Structures are given as structure tokens and as C-alpha cells.
Amino acid sequence: MKVTVHRKAHFNAAHRLFNPKWDDAKNYEIFGKCSNPFYHGHNYELIVAVTGDIDPETGFVMDLKVLRKLIESEVLKNFDHKNLNEEVAVFATLNPTAENIAVVIWNKLRKTINKGLELSVTLYETPRNYVTYTGD
Amino acid sequence: MKVTVHRKAHFNAAHRLFNPKWDDAKNYEIFGKCSNPFYHGHNYELIVAVTGDIDPETGFVMDLKVLRKLIESEVLKNFDHKNLNEEVAVFATLNPTAENIAVVIWNKLRKTINKGLELSVTLYETPRNYVTYTGD
Amino acid sequence: MKVTVHRKAHFNAAHRLFNPKWDDAKNYEIFGKCSNPFYHGHNYELIVAVTGDIDPETGFVMDLKVLRKLIESEVLKNFDHKNLNEEVAVFATLNPTAENIAVVIWNKLRKTINKGLELSVTLYETPRNYVTYTGD
Amino acid sequence: MKVTVHRKAHFNAAHRLFNPKWDDAKNYEIFGKCSNPFYHGHNYELIVAVTGDIDPETGFVMDLKVLRKLIESEVLKNFDHKNLNEEVAVFATLNPTAENIAVVIWNKLRKTINKGLELSVTLYETPRNYVTYTGD
Amino acid sequence: MKVTVHRKAHFNAAHRLFNPKWDDAKNYEIFGKCSNPFYHGHNYELIVAVTGDIDPETGFVMDLKVLRKLIESEVLKNFDHKNLNEEVAVFATLNPTAENIAVVIWNKLRKTINKGLELSVTLYETPRNYVTYTGD
Amino acid sequence: MKVTVHRKAHFNAAHRLFNPKWDDAKNYEIFGKCSNPFYHGHNYELIVAVTGDIDPETGFVMDLKVLRKLIESEVLKNFDHKNLNEEVAVFATLNPTAENIAVVIWNKLRKTINKGLELSVTLYETPRNYVTYTGD
User: In this structure, which of A45, D111, E127, F103 has its CB flanked by the most CB atoms within 10 Å?
Assistant: First the structure.
């Protein structure tokens, strides 16, 4: 009897899309205004979903207070009000597209969440563009 | 050719999180302010999803007017404007976490919906916390 | 050059609508299922709006970090995860309708916010029912 | 390492639910006010989801600018501000329920999106009624 | 001590923008695709706001159950799942723009709501376009 | 008979809060993480409201297609996917708080909108923080 619990969080960050192997013209051709070297930014909305059995003692799959704190320590502390390209080490060499940010967040959370639980990460870059990564 | 149809509904209820095997201190340690013996409450948002083939006569997987009435008779009639712990019999002995409420709703609806259709229940306790149960 | 700044917050609480001068039948006649003696509850969404001149040093009408903390200390600390009728003193003798809750919140905040600033409080009881009080 | 990218779009259209094999009384019995011969309409919200590997050069599963343009040319150009029954050929003989509209949109997009990518279409007819089709 | 209470409702309708004094070319020039003679449609979201003193007996400015029923009898009954141009008499000679629909709704409700209460009507034609009329 | 018409738009931008008369320590004391010299960013949601009489020929206060294009040419073209501090001239010497951005947008639009119409600008910096400027 598996249930999925979801917790929403958000962070505000600056970024630009950029492949260092390409010159500026090629970056602009592929990424358009998202490659602006002065950066732009987003209110990222994050949904973390954890699937597992209900603990009969608590009625919880996972205590959402614990999940909220993990999101804060693993994600928000390092991403919120930051420039992702300049201040988050992994994005020095990895293009901070929504896809790549979601995978990075999944990897960070996967290390701290009980291995018996499945994990999924959804990240809204804007209300119209969002991505999901489940580790598959 | 399977399509999933979703219907949203909502109900307002009071509850507290509480395990009768534990004393008040232990309940507070695990459930925090959610264990307040005077209760608190939520605007629960419910999404019922039904998956099946499209009936070629109607173009429907299931008539959503019928699904809406089932949600009203099976869920809202008993849960809306109620104290879940005090007035909904199943929660006299089952902790009314979002997880357990979703499973209870799924079980109620499963009995009334055609067995050839798959069923999923998503329950928002707050805009930031929600759960999904698919019967797996 | 007056600008209005808004800050949203939320709290979850139980309540019932009840006039102690009336018997149960009259309370049910007027308030319907909202008068359930076992209580029900809501996810209240609160919007506090403050209007004034922009401070040329900060570019702020009022620092929203300060406003957020005032909302926490004056409202959320006493209302969140509470039973309004049983645990918030003012509602021992005042019916906790959305109208009255909004006026109570406005009065609490008015005492702590600079008198040169105008104040407005909007309170959502459900996504479909909400009230606004401006002190007029 | 598969990621799903989602793009939201919307269109406004008129429609009625109608089975030409039935007389008006039977259509009204099954479809109720949705069978009004003068039509009614909706703000349809469309979510197109595409699943595949992240391209290491771009960090994209699929360029959402390209997906946005495909949605415009394949769906919005023909559906937006139209009467679905009268002006979209396929619905001359297919009842424009949300289920059938979603399948039609999926089929249109499936022809233009790389076969190595999975496709899913979600269509909101109203904020409370929506459907999903994944091609299964 | 005046408080404003708000009630949201919605209806789905077809319409076209059209001035009968103009020919089709002129109508298309002014109204674009909104003048499509086959109609299009919307999920209209309606917010009715009523301002007045709090009744000390009930704690209400106006019982929202009563307001909900007035909206149903005065607006939804005649507008929901209708073609506004063809089936709502006033729009036979009045262009059903959001502005004009809001004024018509305000006039209908004004007749039925206590004269001591102020009335405001907000109508969303789409999530991005909406209008407000206060009777001024 | 005055009606207010509203049009929503959005833009994504980077910014930092910063007063050049203060040193970094003072900027951090006042603006906290919002003063990060590497910038952060937001999905800004903009609501432009225009109030005036309904034109009896069109049924419009103002053609929202025209208003949408004005918002694009006066605001989005210069703000979207930009670094407000670095690339929008006015913010070289004006702190880009939500308050100041709203006033700048109001001033830009005021020059292009008919003087007989009233103008109001609401700007969401996040879903929880937003400001309104009406020119008063």
C-alpha cells in the first residue's frame, strides 16, 4: 500500500544558459535571450515527491517536517537568492537548464532520503515551463 | 487507448494527529502543533482520477457528472464541515493524516466505480503538502 | 507618491460559527453546517497591505521582512494550528466569522505598524469566500 | 537518465457535446446542458509533456521554444477562438469531449515530435475537470 | 466599520464580439478573431463583492449562502452553458465584451441586494484579461 | 459608468537590492540576501489596470490587444530576460525594489495611454510579495 507524499518549496535565483564550448553567437543562436551574459532569473517552484509504505505508528510515509528541513538544508540553503552559474559549484561546468537543475536536486536529496523510498523532483522555472525527474 | 479523467472537489474539516497508544508528550514530540487536542483544520482539495477506454457512444471515459455525485455521496457528505477524529467513524482508530485520509477515500470510491477503470486519489492538505494513492 | 506593498501568509485553524445568545436550533438555522459543535477548519490565506511613501534610502515602503515577522508574532503565533473559539481569547465572545477575524487581525497589526502607513487586511476562508477590512 | 519537460498553453473555443446518431432528447439526457445546440465554451489549458534523455550539449530534453512553436502551429492555429464542432474538421464526426480533444491533440503532436521521445497531453476543460492521454 | 465580503463563482459560455452597425470586414478589423461568426467561448470567473457593516448578531456583512444563491438565480441560471449573443436577451443589441457583461451582472445583482450595501463585480474572461465595475 | 480593465503579463529578470551610498556590510544589514552582488532573480507578474468609460461602439474601455502591445513595447522589450541593475538605465541609480520597478513601469505606460484613462500597476515579485502603484 504505497502512497506518495509531496512537499512544495521555492527559491529565487539568477542564471544564464551557456555552453562554454561555443562562442557567444552560437550560444545566442541556441539559447536566445536565455544566454544573456548579464543573467536573468526565476522564482523556481520545487515539488519533492516521496513514495513508500505508510508507517502504522505515525500514519506518515515520511514526516513532512523532516522533508521540509532536508529541502532547506540540501537545496534552499545553497540555491536561494544565488547566481546558479557563479555560486553553485556544480553549474560551473553544467548548464543550469531546468532539466539539469532538477537532476542535481534529485541527486542531492537521494543521498539523504531512506533508500526504501522512491523519489521524484519537479521543478517549475516559470508557470508555463516545468520538468520532472524520477531517477529512471 | 486509455485516457485519465480528473475531477476536483473540496471539503473543509477539523482534525488532529494523534496516536492513542502514546501519551500527550510523545504525540507532541512526533506531531508537533498538529497534535493540538483542541483541533485545527484545513480546506482539503481532492482530485479523483479515473483511467479507462473512451466509450465511442459518449466520448467519455466516465461521465464526470456521475463521478461528481459519487464524490459528493461517498466523501463530501461525510467529511465536509466535520471533525474527522470525532465524527468520521474510521478515524476513531486511524490517525487522520493526509496519507490515511487518501486511502480511506480511495477505498470508499473503489467500491462504487466500475472495476474495469483504474482509480487514483490525490488529496491536498495545504497548497504545499499533498499525497497521492493509486491502490498499488 | 504612495505605493501599497502586500505580503501573503497563511494559517490553519479550526472554528465554528456560533452565537451564544441563540439555542442550537437557531444557530443551525442561521449558520448551517458551519455551526457544527465539533468544529470544522480552514487553510486561511492572509494578505496584509501597507500603503505609504517610498523611503528614498531603501526603496521600500516598509521592509517586507519586518512585516513578515510582525504577521508571525501578532497573528500566526496565536492563530496557526489553533481552535479559534477555544484557544483565542477574543473569540470566546466574538463569533469567528471571516469578517470578525479580519477585523481582529487588523486591530492587532494596526498597533504595531507606523501610524503614517495605511493598513488593509484580506482574509481568504476558502478560495471562493474572502473578506477585506481597511479600517474605514 | 530520462527527464520530462512540460509546456503549458491555452486556447479559447466554443463546442457542444453531441452524438448525431441520437435525437435531441437523448443528447440532452446524456450530455445535459453541455448539449446546448447554441454552443457554450471554455478556456482550455493544455499541458504537453515530452520525456527523453538530456542532450549533453544543450542541457535540454527538447528545446521548449521549439515545442511552443509546434503547439502553436499544430493546435492553437486551428483551435483557438474556433467553434470546434463547426470549424475543426475532425469534430464533424467525433464528439468534442475533453477526452477526444486530448487524443486528437496527441495524434497531431506525435507526428511532429522525435519518435525517441515519449509524449503526454493533459487538457483542462475547466479548473475542476481535466484529462490526460499518454498514447498507451 | 465596513468590511467587504467576496464570493467567487464561474460559468462557461460562448460569445462573439460584434457590432451590427458594421460589416464583417470592419468587425474583423476591430475585434479580430474574437468576431468569429461561429463563436468561441470562455470559462468566466466572477467575483461579487459586497461592502457594509458587520451585523453584530451574525458576524456577517451578508450571509454568503444567500449571496451564492442570488448569483445562481440572477446570473448562472441564465448565463451558464449558454451562447450569450443568441440566448441572453440583453446581448441581442449589446456587444458581450467583458466590460458590458460585468455591467449587466452588476445591474441584475444591484436590484436584489440591500441598498445599504455597496456592490462590485469583477469578471475574468481569461486568467490574463479581467474587468471590474463598481457602479461609479 | 467607469469600468476597470486588467491585463496580466510577465517577465523574468535578475536584480539585486543595493544602495551605492552604503558599503557592503550596510547593504547586507538592510537588504540581507537580496543584496547578493552576484544577483538573484524573479518571475515578475505584472497587472496593468486602466479605468474609464465604455466606448459604446466597441464595448471596450480600451482594446486589450492594444494594451498588450504597449506592455510589450514599453516594458517587456526592455525588462524581460535582463539584469535590471546592469541593463536598464534607470536602475543604474535607482534601487530596483518592487516599489521602484512598479513606479518606473507606471511612468512609462502613463506617457502612452490616453490621459482620460486612469492607470494602476501591480507587480508580483514573488507569489507572496507584491506592490501596487496608482499614481496618487
Answer: F103
pLDDT value at position A1? 86
The x, y and z cell numbers of residue C127, run together, are 478560495
The backbone region for C59, taken as left when phi is positive above 0, alpha when psi lies in -120 to 50, beta otherwise, is left
- What is d(CA F24, CA F17) in angstroms, rounded to the nearest whole number? 11
State the complex-level ipTM: 0.96
DSSP secondary structure letters along E13-54: EEE----TTS-HHHHHHHHGGGG-TT-EEEEEEEEEEEEEEP
Hey, which residues of E are catalytic here? Answer: 34, 81, 125
Residue A119: strand pairing partners: A50
CA distance E34 to D14: 12
State the cell numbers at A1.
500500500
Spatial separation of the C-alpha atoms in residues A44 and B48, rounded to whole Å: 27
How far is the C-alpha of E93 from the C-alpha of E78, rounded, in Å? Answer: 17
What pLDDT is stored for residue F41 in this prediction?
Answer: 97
Count Cβ–Cβ pairs < 8 Å, chain B vs chain C: 77
Burial of D22 (0-12, 13-18, 19+ CB in 10 A): middle
DSSP type of residue C22 = S
CB atoms within 10 A of CB E111: 8
Strands (E), chain D: 2-15, 40-53, 82-83, 118-126, 129-133
Q: What is d(CA E103, CA E120) in angstroms, rounded to the nearest whole number?
A: 10
Other CB atoms within 10 Å distance of the CB of residue E124? 20
**Residue B40 pLDDT class (50, 70, 90 cuts):** very high
CA nearest to C107 within chain E: E1
Strands A2-15 and A82-83: parallel
> What is the domain class of B2-133 according to CATH?
alpha beta
Q: Compare CB distances from A3 to B17, B32, B132 and report the shortest one's residue.
A: B132
Residue A65 · residue A72 · CB < 8 Å: no
Interface of F with C (CB under 8 A): 17, 19, 21, 30-32, 94-100, 102-103, 127-134, 136
Q: Is the pLDDT of residue A131 over 90?
A: yes
CA atoms within 13 A on the CB side of F84: 33
From chain C, which residues contact E within 8 Å (Cβ)?
Answer: 17, 19, 21, 30-32, 94-100, 102-103, 127-134, 136
Query: According to the model, what pLDDT value does residue C1 have?
Result: 85
* Cα B86 to the center of its chain, rounded Å: 17
b/e sequence D30-57, b meaning 16+ C-beta within 10 Å: bbeebbbebbbbbbbbbbbbbbbebeee
pLDDT tier at E1, thresholds 50, 70, 90: confident
Beta bridge partners, A7, equal A48, B129
d(CA D90, CA F11): 37
Domain boundaries, chain D: 2-133
Q: Judge whether A29 counts as a catalytic residue.
A: no
The C-alpha atoms of residue D133 and residue F7 are separated, in whole angstroms, by 32
| Residue A98 CB-density burial (10 A; 0-12 exposed, 13-18 middle, 19+ buried) | buried
